C-alpha cells in the first residue's frame, strides 16, 4: 500500500455482503489509482468480512478494519482517523462510482484550494442496479449555510469528497445523530469555516434507491432532522429560527413523498402533509412540486377510504 496516497476512500459496511462486491469493483475501476480503500466492518453478522478479505489479498491498497457495531457515523469517523490521504472520499457499501470519479475530484480540489468539500451530479439506480434514468439537479455553487437546513445538495455521502484536515478540524460526523448527520456536518463547514462547498457539473455517482421501508424509518428520519436543527441552532440561533418553519415544511413534504414511493399507509402521508401546511402553508402553496405531492397524497387517502367503505365494496361486486 502507498504510504501516503492522495485520496483515502472510506466505506462503512454493516451486513453489506450483498452489494459490497459491486461497490468495491467501482473503486478498483477508477482511472485515478493513487488511493487507499478503508472498509470499516461495523460488527457485521453476514459474510461482509470474508468478502472484503478476498480483495485485501488481491490488492494492497485495500484494508479491512473490524469493530463493534456503533453506527455509520462512528464507522466513517474511524475511517477518517485512519486515513492517510489529503482527501477523504466517502462511499456507502451499496452505491457505486463512475470510473472518473476520483480523477475529477482530485483535479478540482487541486485547482480550487478554496473548496473544502466537493460533490457532483448523482444518477439514481434501482435496488437491482439498473438505472432509473434520473439525475439529480441540485444547486452546485454559491451554497449558503441555511440551504443545508432544507435539504442536502450532495444527496448522498457517497458523493462527498472532503479535505482530511478540514474533516478533523470540524471533528467529523456527530455520532448522536442517526439521520441527517451529513447535513449537520455540511452546515458546520458552511457556517464555521472559510472553505467553500461546491459541486461539479458531471455525473460521477450511482445512488441505489431501495423501494422498501417502514413507517418507523420515516419517523426516525424526522427525529434525526430535528436533532440536526437543534445542533445547528446552538451555533447560529438567529439563522435557524428564521428558517426553521420553512425548512421543517420542506422536510415534511419530502417525507410525504417517500410514503408514496414506499407504498406506506396513506394516513402517514396525510399526517406529514398536514403538518407541512401547519409549519409553513405559504411555502407549500408557492412550490408547485409541494402542491402536487399534497394533492396526490390526499387523493390516495380519499381513494383508500372509499375502497374500504362497505357500501362502495357492495357496488363494485
Automatic annotation (TrEMBL):
Q: Which Gene3D superfamilies match?
A: Spore Coat Polysaccharide Biosynthesis Protein SpsA, Chain A
The taxonomic lineage of its organism, from the top, reads: Bacteria, Bacillati, Cyanobacteriota, Cyanophyceae, Oscillatoriophycideae
Name of the protein? Glycosyltransferase
SUPFAM superfamilies in the cross-refs? Nucleotide-diphospho-sugar transferases
Q: Which organism is it from?
A: Symplocastrum torsivum CPER-KK1
Glycosyltransferase 2-like domain mapped to chain residues: 8-169
**Pfam families, from UniProt?**
Glycos_transf_2
UniProt xrefs under InterPro entries: Glyco_trans_2-like (IPR001173), Glycosyltransf_2 (IPR050834), Nucleotide-diphossugar_trans (IPR029044)
